[in-house]
Structure formats: C-alpha cells, structure tokens
Amino acid sequence: MSTSPTVRGTTSGAVPVPGSVTATGGDGPAVPGSLAWATWALFVGLAAMLAGAGLFGTLVGVRGDLEGFPVSVNGLISAAYYGGFLIGSRLALNALGQVGHIRVYAALASILAATIIAFGLIVSPPAWVAMRFLTGLCLAGQYVVAESWLNQLTGNENRGRLLAVYGLVTTGAFGVGQLMFGPVDPLTMTGFAVAAILICLAVAPVALSEDAGPPAITVPARMSLRELMRIVPTGVGTSLLVGVAHGGFLGLGALYAVRAGLGTGEIARFVAAPMIGGLLLQWPISAASDDIDRRAVGVVAATLAAGAGVLLLVAGPEGWTGLALMAAIGGNSYPLYSIAGAYTNDWVPSSKITAAASQLVLLYGAGAMIGPIVTSLMMDAIGIDGFVWTVIGVHVMIAAFLTYRFFAYRVALVRRPWSEVSLAARPFFIPVTVVSMGRRLRARPTRPPRPQP
C-alpha cells in the first residue's frame, strides 16, 4: 500500500490532502495543519456523539437494574446493542457508496437521538432489546464512517498515530459522558434527553464545516470476510476477541458496580475510569505499534490488562485502588482495537480500506455481542466476580493468540534501531528484541515463512 499522501474528495470534486500524521521525535502527535483542518469537524462531532452515547449506556445499565431486570436480561439488552453492529456495518458500507460520508453520518445521528428519547418513554425488556439493537446499528455505522474516512488520509507508517488520536477522542468523550451520569436521576427522563441533545449537536460541525474533506462518493470495493481472513488472519482474530472483551467490560461494568454496592457518584467514576486510562495510554501504545511489530505491542498490552484484572479481583472495586485498576484495564485494552485496525490496513489494498473497516466493525460487533452473554452467565454462576474473571480470561486469550501469530508469521519484530524508536515505543523495545532474537535462534533456515500476516 502506498504511504504517500492520497487524494480524497468532497462532494464538489477531488481535493488533495497534503501530508499525513507524522512523528516529530516520536514523543507526541504532530498533525500537519492541512490534515488537522480536514478532520477537526469529524473529531468534534464524534466527541459530542460519544459523550451522549457514554451517558446513555450507563443510564441503560443502571436503570435496568433499578427496574428489577435479571442479570441475564441486562446481558441480553447489551448483546442486542452489539448485534446491531453486525447489521449496521454492512448497511453503512452500502450507504456510503450511495450518498457519501456526511449524509450517512447525519441520518444515523438523527435516528440514534430519536431512539434514545424512546428509551426514556418506554420501559419494557422486549422494547429495550429492540431499541438497543437499533442504537448499536446506528453507532456501528458511525464507526464505519469515521474509520474509513480517517484510514484513507494516511499511510501505513503513521496510521497507528492517527487512529490513536481517533481513539483518544472517542474514549475520552465516552468517559466524559459516563461522568455526567453522577448528578442524573436514572429514574427520570432527564438523562435520556441530555444524551439525545448531545447527539443532535454532533451533526452540526460535520454538516456545516466547509473544511471537512471526506472521501469522494464512490461505490466501495467489496471484500468478503473470507478474503480478509486469507490476507490478514491476525486482524480478523484480534478484532473478534477484542470485541468479546469490550462487550462484557462495557456492557456490564455499570451493573457490576451496582451489585458491588457502589453509590451513584462512585458508579459514574468507576465506569469512567477505563476511559481515563484509555486517554492516558492510547497514544503511547498506538504510537509504539508504528515502530515495533503491532502484534508484539498487543501482547504486552493484553497481558497488562489481564494482570490488572487479577489485582482487581483481589482488591475489589472500592476506593481509589479499584478506580486505578479499572483505568489500567481500560488503558491497556482500548488501544487493542486501534492496533488490530492499523495492522489490518497495513496489509489490505488501499482500494479496499473502507470494506475492510466495515468487516472489522462487524467482527468487533460479533465478539461484543458474545461478551455480555458470557459475562452475565459467569456472574449468574459465580457471583459478581464473574465479571472480573471474564475480563482476565479474554485478555489472556488475546495475548496468547497474538503470541501464536508472530511465531506463525516470522517477520522482524523491531522495525527501527533504538536511536530511531519513539519514546513511547522504548519500553517495548528490549523485551521485543529478546523475543525476536530467540525466535530467530529457533527458526529453521530451510522453512519459508507462511504468506499469512
């Protein structure tokens, strides 16, 4: 795939976007003015939308428990949300080829806001399952819009950094929305109305900015899941497993906090702590994956998330210790999706980036639909600690899968010498170098590498 600046268009014609996200010394984001100007409206709109989604998601989890819904029903409601991802990613991909990024974004936002208002008016498990499915469909479409838009603005060498900025915006805004739950009475309509207002406001910057530079309206190239699996099995497997991890973690985190006896303000801080951790670690982990094999960085991050889960199991969710451990889990877990996306787009043809983004969202949604069901079953079987055991187990699976993949497909794990590695990547450099040396010693010289990244 070419790493040179690409030409993207607006509805009025092709407009060159010079430059890409670059590292200046590797210690922080350095976005050229042209690219920052072309993406600010999308990032501002996403921030407002995800703040509303964060408030809404916490409201649904707490309100369902206050209404007396069983754990299994709350798990089904969360699973329905991610089930919407499976449909939304496909519908959004088709719509992008018909009307373009901005119109799809605006249409999905309006449907999402109306559905959230309906949530506050109708309190019924069957209705909530159906409406939660619809909210998942809308947000999946927004992720396809955003990720296909951004992936076409940069090359392989800096894609991790651009997606890190995207991750910072989305996780930070989602966390702010969760913190907004603190002063809200979950039994009233107020919280749902505020969430809907934020999502309505999210349309304004994207729809009105003359500087927004979405890709041209074209019929996107198709890519089947089988084809994506053949080209980059690592990205397929990682996206699915990360979805399982995040589905249970996000879907039932508020319920876990309620069942642990935390107060309303404590619940807001507890569910927001992973997003704060994501804000702190999204950039360094994603930037490190531009300098060192993304799979190796993913192994370290997943292992640290599992380790923080073990400590949470011992210490419990109360107090600052519980908040710090939740932040550590989220900070190491949330970048895993960016890593999976960046690694996948390193290998797929540039003409199929949008199709690949849709498939990754679909895979993530499939995993995230499984996550709440597994987590709720674990909580029913062994109590509230089942939530933490699921977090630990799935992150161990992610680390094991990525370890298998970089032994199965043997390429250099360290891409640059120490002097050229960014500050964010240096903590990963020594252990990855040791693994790389050990792998070379065990390798058979006569055995060619398998052509599967």
What's the number of structural domains? 1
Fourth-tier CATH superfamily name: MFS general substrate transporter like domains
Q: Looking at the chains present, what oligomeric state does this protein adopt?
A: single chain
Structural class: mainly alpha
Instruction: Name the average pLDDT.
Output: 79
Task: Enter the CATH topology name.
Answer: Growth Hormone, Chain: A
Proportion in helices = over 70%
Low-confidence stretches: 1-33
What's the tally of helices?
17
The helix/strand order is EEEEHHHHHHHHHHHHHHHHH
CA gyration radius, whole angstroms = 21 Å
Which shape, going by the Cα principal axes? globular
What is the CA-CA span between the terminal residues? 14 Å
Main β-sheet, spatial strand arrangement: 1-2
- Biggest sheet descriptor: 2 strands, antiparallel
